[in-house]
Amino acid sequence: MKEQVQNASGDAGTPLLAIQGLRTWFETDRGIVRAVDGIDLDVRRGECLGVVGESGSGKSATFASVMGLIRKPGRIVEGSIRFDGTELTSLDDRARRAMRGRDLAMTMQDALTALNPALRVGTQIIEVLRAHDQAASRSAATARAIELMQLVGIPAAESRIADYPHQFSGGMRQRIMIAIALACRPRLLIADEPTTALDVTIQAQVLDLIAGLRAKLGMSVVLITHNLGVVAAYCDRVAVLYAGQVVELGPTAEVIAAPRHPYTEGLLRSLPKLEDLDHPIEPIVGQVPDLISAPEGCRFAARCPHRRDSCAAAVAMRHVSPGRQVRCVLAEGAAP
Amino acid sequence: MPIARFVERILHLIPVLAGVSVIVFLMISLTPGDPVEIMLGDQRATPEQVASMRRDMGLDRPAVERYFVFVTNAIRGDFGQSFFHRRPVSAVISERLPATIELTVAAMLIAIGLAIPLGVLAAVRRDTILDRIATVGSLFGVSLPGFWFGILLILFFAVQLQILPVAGRLGYAMEVPAVTGFALVDSLIAGRMDSFWEVLRHLALPAFTLGLPSAAILMRVTRSAMIEVLRADYITFAEAKGLSRARIIGLHALKNALIPAVSVAALETGTLLGGNMVVETVFGWPGLGRLVVESIFARNYPLVQAAVLLYAVTYVALNFAADLLYTVLNPRVRL
User: For B332, which of A110, A131, A166 is closest by C-beta distance?
Assistant: First the structure.
């Protein structure tokens, strides 16, 4: 599953998606909310990148920026988003729309609200094929829609294509949403909290489906989640976001085995441990800083057990070992 | 929808209609004084004539018996004699009804035709000047009294500009044989395009006057429903799919926003029946509304009774139709 898939149109050496210095701010009555405040992040070809952080860490806003779905009062203030060499931030609406759903696709947290309740699921699959000229005719589109429903494991797809979303179970609805996202064989799938709305037993099924399709279609996947267990099981690399910035980035196994940022450490410690259920869960004390007036220095300092004076100054990402970066004054290690 | 549920819904209408029939029946019984004398008004009548009229109207029999006679007759479409037309009430009403239906349908088409596009536009361009104009305009639309607005329109379009007729339905020279009673349909049957056009010209001002308040209300409902719907996750997901703006607004958002709009439209059509009385009187439109107003002043109770019952049945039927449409638009709702 971790093999790198060569993409026909691009150079395998460069990342599929390169986000640099991205700032996405929201102008509210209270002031400017700096939801995304200087994010640098790559998604490599064929990889599964886990993006972890609590609510308000900027993980969803970052990828809404990538999809071009930031609405007023939000706006991308600065930064670059390159997709396979194309700078997305300078494209006009029409060109961006042409890429959405075709090159970059997204699934949302809850398929119940993401699927239109008033339209048949078949219509909702077919329209994305038609919007991107992926089907010559209506009948070809219908046939392809049935194929997609079968691909994501929906039984009796031929008859269920005429059903409405509310006629499906939660897991089946999630599969339909995935079928829609994958309809045009995108090169990047952004899965925003794909399992939060599901029962635990269904969660693994949906994640396995995404992982299987990723291998089959050779696409890259960004898995946005607040569940480190999911990341450990499915992601090649993980980026930990805090208050609009990346604070730790590296191969999943390494980050989980030996976190270098106190926040990542705290996240891991707050997980219940299966092998030691008597061990108390340790929550991270304090709260995420107000993104309107975030501190100039380390944003985690106020909650950090290792806080010291040098934390008051701005901290840049430090390379600690090949492929691993940490935004913390305590982190030391190999040069990049 | 399963037939059984459909039948059940229709059966639910029976108690409502029964209640209405009691109220309509009591109209005469509760009128202070002797209904016969009130109906006779200033006309001189001999005691024999009064007694014979009481007998004709069945007023000499007990109230319960009279109610059942009234209801059984009403079901057969017999509402007695219209006092001053000296013809059956049902005949007088069915003669006037098509003109009113024509006017109401035209008013509703104008209302929907104005309200839905404007409501959608105001929601999509929310907080722009266009939205403000539409919102303030709708406030005027709701607040302007029909009789006054109608007269203003007459003064401007008929008297000043002289591009539309002042009142009436069709000039005598343009009369076409009444087949259905709907002047537009009859003109087409007679192959008279000149008459058809003439009816349209006569229809324009009263239909606009009648439809404007409904347009205003419907516009507001559409606007707020659209604003609500445009915030939904499925709109974001539709955008993520790369669909065109037109499809997202025209299909994904509108189909959901129409759900509340449809119920309001159906209720508004019922309200138009009341509005008809004023508008038909102002524009000299020979419909049921004007007939009812005339009948109220003439104390022509049998006709008023029949008309009120007809209004009630129509209102209930429109609500039922709205519920049916609701299920078509909203697959989650089963009757």
Answer: A166
Residue B36 tokens read as 């016969």
Q: Residue A59, CB half-sphere, CA atoms under 13 Å: how many?
A: 26
* Residue A286: inside a domain: yes
Q: How many domains is chain A built from?
A: 1
Show residues of chain B in contact with A116, CB under 8 Å.
Answer: 234, 238, 252, 255-256
Separation between Cα atoms, residue B214 and residue B149, nearest integer Å: 14
CATH number of the domain enclosing A291:
3.40.50.300
Instruction: Show which residues on chain A lie within 8 Å of chain B, measured between beta carbons.
Output: 67, 69, 97-102, 105-106, 108, 110, 113-119, 127-128, 131-132, 164, 166, 177, 180-181
* Strands annotated E in A60-198: 74-83, 86-87, 104-107, 188-192
pTM for the full model? 0.83
Q: How far apart are the CA of A40 and the nearest CA of chain B, in angstroms? A: 23
Chain A residues inside the 8 Å CB shell of B247 = 127, 131
Give the pair of three-digit tokens for residue A255. 């980050």
- Residue whose pair of structure tokens reads 């009187």 in the numeric block: B281
State the residue range of the domain holding A98: 17-103+186-326
Contact: B243, A101; criterion CB under 8 Å:
yes
- Residue A271 is assigned to a structural domain of this protein: yes
Enumerate the H helices of A132-279 as residue ranges: 138-151, 157-160, 170-182, 200-217, 228-234, 252-257, 262-269
Give the strand pairing for A318-321 and A86-87.
unpaired
**Is B242 in contact with A106 (Cβ distance < 8 A)?**
no
- Residue A145 inside a domain? The answer is no
pLDDT (tens digit per residue) in A7-64 = 444 556 789 999 999 999 999 998 999 999 999 999 999 999 999 988 889 999 999 9
Smallest Cβ–Cβ distance between A102 and the set B232, B242, B244 belongs to B242
- Cβ contact (<8 Å) for A98 and B238? no
Residues in chain A: 336
d(CA B258, CA B260): 6
The per-residue pLDDT for range A192-234, each reduced to its tens digit, is 988 887 888 888 888 999 999 999 989 999 999 988 889 999 9
Complete domains list, chain B, with CATH = 94-301 (1.10.3720.10)
